[in-house]
Design brief:
Layout lengths: L12 E5 L2 E2 L20 E8 L13 E7 L7 E9 L3 E9 L7 E12 L8 E13 L3 E15 L7 H5 L2 H10 L4 H9 L13 E16 L4 E24 L8 E3 L2 E3 L1 E24 L4 E23 L10 E22 L2 E22 L2 E23 L4 E12 L3 H5 L10 E13 L4 E5 L1
Parallel strand pairs: 1-4
Antiparallel strand pairs: 1-2, 3-4, 5-6, 6-7, 7-8, 8-9, 9-10, 10-11, 11-14, 12-13, 14-15, 15-16, 16-17, 17-18, 18-19, 19-20, 20-21
């Protein structure tokens, strides 16, 4: 569910699928649960540590992960893959491909299902996905379309099991409940559960989300020295997580207090859904020149837009003022444009290989944030813009067939995430992050082994 490289969290690791950005534009995270069993359609993955070369998505501080989906299969095939495990865990995958037809066309398809009761109480999962790819392959050109989607329903189980529950110490459990303000019902759940204790008991405390990806990839080889790649993409995501909330304030949902039998009531139990409804679309390109004599130059770039609605609705309430069930108690939008261009190259000279990479990135983000209006805090639509210059350079030196040295220096910039903007005013808003990355390394390699050292 999460990958850390060099201790850096996933929001600072840049992930692409076939060169197309996967990181969420607002949170910068990658939610693999939205792509169940995608590994069954992966040809290869490349992990590049540190500041990545100019690719797409959020800035890469810890690493870049580049995923390539299935390449062309020349022979027809069919495959059924089933796995079974503890806690009623089942994984079913069926895949098939046409092979190369008339030396020009090929299609591949996959259908997957993963279900499990989970180890933690009620922490069930129901994941479904498909992958469909079709391509035309000419002598110098290829055109390929990919469609893949996933739907996940997972019961929430974010909290760990308290040490007192693991050890079965009743007094320590009661102390834990008191420290954390647990209700009597929540305390009973803690006392009567085992090691698989889950704080949540509401039967439908689930995350329910569907994400669809559409990719169109075109490659063309002009001659031995020049080639080009253009890709368009569209991602559609929509879903919610459902919560039971005990004794929430009326004001949270815009309700006015009620008078019940002479008493003023301003708190109630509610069941709510908090929604994400988003569109992500754009394109990337590059053109590559290789003179066959040690010089390689790439000019590329991309632009994409993210349009995301965030809203919440009450689907049940202990008290329902004005019958406002399913009214949206908050509703806001984030719109982000992200564009970049780069020029990078490598040059071989004697035993040296030099490389350089110059990238410019522009960001325009409009969102609903907190600001001071007439002496009070209020939600106000705001806009921020960033212009980042990210240079990289370095060299490698080959001493002989077994030994080589390298050094590089790179700069990366990264804008704050949505939460940083939403939970601050323009006066105390966090600044963007800048990373300066210096690396020096040594490699020794023989036919029987290797040794790498990196600082």
């Amino acid at each position: 569910t999460g990958v850390r490289i060099r201790g850096v969290d996933p929001t600072r690791t840049n992930v692409t699928v076939n060169g197309i950005p996967l990181n969420d534009s607002e949170s910068h995270g990658v939610f693999w649960v939205n792509m169940p069993d995608f590994a069954s359609s992966v040809e290869d993955m490349q992990v590049q540590r540190g500041v990545g070369t100019s690719s797409n998505g959020g800035a890469a501080f810890g690493a870049s992960i580049n995923v390539n989906s299935n390449q062309i299969n020349k022979e027809a095939y069919g495959k059924l893959d089933n796995s079974f495990g503890s806690f009623n865990t089942v994984r079913n995958t069926v895949s098939a491909g046409s092979g190369l037809l008339n030396n020009r066309f090929a299609m591949d398809a996959r259908l997957s299902r993963i279900t499990s009761d989970g180890y933690i109480d009620r922490a069930s999962s129901n994941l479904r996905s498909f992958y469909l790819s079709g391509g035309w392959y000419g002598e110098k050109s290829s055109l390929k379309a990919n469609v893949f989607a996933g739907h996940e329903v997972t019961y929430q189980a974010w909290y760990g099991t308290p040490e007192s529950r693991i050890e079965g110490d009743e007094q320590e459990m009661l102390d834990y409940a008191a420290r954390n303000g647990l209700s009597q019902e929540e305390t009973d759940n803690l006392l009567n559960s085992g090691r698989t204790y889950n704080f949540y008991t509401y039967e439908n405390e689930v995350d329910n989300y569907q994400q669809e990806h559409y990719q169109l990839l075109f490659n063309h080889q002009f001659n031995k020295k020049w080639r080009a790649n253009v890709a368009g993409h569209y991602t559609r995501g929509k879903g919610y997580y459902e919560q039971f909330r005990e004794s929430d304030d009326f004001s949270t949902y815009g309700y006015s207090p009620l008078t019940v039998e002479g008493d003023t009531v301003d708190q109630m139990d509610v069941i709510r859904r908090r929604w994400l409804d988003n569109h992500f679309y754009g394109g990337v390109f590059y053109t590559d020149y290789n003179n066959g004599k040690g010089l390689n130059i790439t000019l590329g770039g991309g632009a994409n837009a993210y349009d995301g609605d965030h809203y919440g609705e009450v689907i049940w309430a202990e008290f329902t003022p004005d019958n406002r069930i399913r009214d949206r108690y908050y509703d806001n939008n984030g719109f982000k444009v992200d564009a970049h261009g780069y020029l990078k190259g490598t040059y071989d000279w004697n035993k040296f290989t030099f490389f350089g990479d110059l990238q410019f990135r522009y960001i325009d983000y409009t969102f609903l944030g907190v600001d001071e209006v007439s002496g009070e805090l209020a939600d106000v639509t705001q806009n921020v813009q960033y212009n980042f210059f990210n240079p990289k350079g370095g060299f490698s030196y080959t001493l002989n067939k077994q030994n080589s040295l390298y050094a590089s220096y790179a700069v990366a910039n990264r804008e704050p995430v949505r939460r940083d903007f939403r939970e601050s005013t323009p006066e105390n808003r966090p600044q963007h992050e800048t990373l300066y990355n210096l690396e020096v390394g040594y490699r020794y390699k023989t036919t029987k082994g290797f040794f790498n050292a990196n600082v």
